[in-house]
Predict the structure.
Amino acid sequence: MTWKRICEAAEIPENSVKKFEVDGVALVVVNYGEGFRAIPPICPHMEEPLAESGVVARCILTCTKHLWAWDLRTLEMQGETERPLKTYEVKQENGTLLANIEGELTYDFDDAAGDSDDDDFFK
Amino acid sequence: MNTHERDMKVTVQNKNGELTFDCGERESILYAGLRQGINLPFECATGTCGTCRARVTSGDVDVRWKDAPGGARLKPDKGDILMCQARARSDCLLRVPSELVIADTAGPAMRRGIIRGLRPLTNDVMHFDLHLTSPMSFQAGQFVVLEAAGIAGGRAYSMVNFANDVERLALVVKRKPGGRFGDLLFDNLSGEAEVEVFGPLGRAVFRPEEDRNFVCIAGGSGIAGMMSILECATQVDYFRNHKGALFFGVRTLADAFYLEQLSRYAAASHGNLDVTVALSDETIGAKLHAEFPILKLANGMVHEVAAKGMAEWDRNVIAYVAGPPIMVDSTIRSLIVGGIPIKDIRYDKFS
């Protein structure tokens, strides 16, 4: 467990998406009213920057570019969404928001070791 | 030298299997697949969105528009291409990242067309007619891609008219700085230009059998597809039993067009079609248009005017959105926050 401070919880208004960089790891934090989620800063569909393309309403995060969406309470995919969100564990301590960041979470379209067999293309 | 067109075999693979189709020398791989009813992934069909990416695992392809903005995230060293910009130079094997099926309905096709009947609508918007070499049927809200000799890539235009088996498509173009297609049209007002026409394309369609109320939110020349939807709805007297609304966003009243036609649709709607022209850069006190008083006027950005206008509406409504990218994004955001389910928001991105 490597808990790192992101910000004060009050800095992120309800139903908003805000981008942070914590020790070189870029992420966005979403306040969906019933809680917070810390996720990679891009949509797992086509790498749209969620701080700009994301909209939160009724606990659902939607990327406005192609309408991929997830219920942030359960992480359940909505509509035609084809890939799950990856998330960093978050907790609050005395109003401070912390995320468990052991390493940067990425989606498979990112360059990663071991994709030389081209299998990354399908994931 | 080949004097006749040769067909290549293109095989597309995904996790679930593979399909093979013919691809002529002069057509893009995307168009070849679509015209043979294969649902290859795409949105804009013109190199801007990146949705039709594929990875060539064997065979030769020729990429026409190498700097297409939709290709920014491809990995060319791994053989990634945009199918809309690639032509097969041999039999090819491609991987695509989505499920593939063969449609049982007629797909799009390539036709030739002659541009005629250019008619300026405002300072920078032009109506034109495209006379096709063979008739085409399409659904209200669909678009075609035009390609002209000497202009790289194609340009997408939504049909303004609606009918089955038409030989004339009514289209509208907005002139943008550096827009070569717009320049071609605006600079040749009296001449006829021959173009290639691929279509119909697009999923943001109106189908009367869905039997639901709907809202159209358009910015500028995004009104084109909405005109087709309203024409189709009017032809089947859809507004006898359904409510409809159109919010048409323009900068100033002088930038609005098709108002006479819109007032005719509203007049034929049994009072069930509400048309509002939203003016973002001009403040007007009048609530109704002076010449066409069936049309409402409002001040503000069209997505805000629409949100206000829809406040009393049931959320069970289909929302069509078209216009410049920023306007489309703002509108989608506003619809989601307003509680319209994502499955009921329809738009095609081809800007």
Q: What stands out?
A: The longest helix of chain A spans residues 50-53. Confidence is low (pLDDT under 50) at residues 110-118 of chain A. The interface with chain B takes residues 15, 46-47, 53, 55, 57-58, 60, 62, 64-65, 67, 69, 78-79, 109, 111, 118, 121-122 of chain A (CB under 8 Å).
